[in-house]
Amino acid sequence: MAISLAEVETAFQKFAVHGDTKATGKEMNGKNFAKICKDCHITDGKNVTTTDVDIVFSKVKAKSARVITFEQFNQALTELAPKRFKGKSKDEALQQLYGLLAGKEPANVGVTKVAKAAAVDRLTDTTKYTGSHKERFDDSGKGKGKAGREDIPDTSGYVAAYKGTGTYDEKVKDA
Predict the structure, then answer these.
(1) Most CB contacts within 10 A, which of 20, 106, 121, 162?
(2) Distance of alpha carbon 94 from alpha carbon 51, whole angstroms
(3) From start to end residue, where is composition biased (Basic and acidic residues) (predicted)?
(4) Is the pTM above the cut of 0.90?
């Protein structure tokens, strides 16, 4: 069941460059170390928690460094293995840990899901608008543009916005 270090290194490199355009794949930051542990089920929330992962990360990295090399990554795994697989020998535990890592890639499929259509539809349904918001759309739900947003003064005639506009002539005609 021995898994070659090369397979583990491939996984390490894939996670090392994840989300970092400048990364070479030779070093891994703490965030991606936590991610590889989470995605490959090294953290199980019982024996190995995210705190353990952070502690081991800071233990193996160089004092001032913010990243770890593959060698240090290996060291970290050696520390985590007996915790994750209690009751196994160090080598056995490490092999099982390698088994979790081999052939893995960062799981970021579907991390950013498109907002639920129903919610957006509900919020953009102009028929449910009330008050001044309702004024901004015509009956078909199409926006009125500037006319729906601003009070455009009616400057026609002598008295602005006179309600009985255009009725004088009719009144005179009848008389």
Answers:
(1) 106
(2) 20
(3) 132-152
(4) no
User: Residues 40, 101: contact at Cβ < 8 Å?
Assistant: yes
| End-to-end alpha carbon distance in the chain | 109
Q: At what angle do helices 5-16 and 70-84 cross, to 10 degrees?
A: 110
Using one digit for the tens of pLDDT, what is the confidence trace for 83-94?
Answer: 999 889 989 988
Domain-by-domain residue ranges, the chain?
5-101, 112-150
Tens-place pLDDT, residues 43-92: 988 899 999 999 999 999 998 999 999 999 999 999 999 999 988 998 99
Q: What is the pLDDT of residue 74?
A: 93
pLDDT > 90? residue 175:
no
SS3 letters for 42-103?
A: CCCCCCCCHHHHHHHHHHHCCCCCCEEEHHHHHHHHHHHHHHHCCCCCHHHHHHHHHHHHCC
Give CA 136 to chain center in angstroms.
33
Helical (H) or strand (E) element with 29: strand 27-29
Determine the pLDDT at residue 19.
83
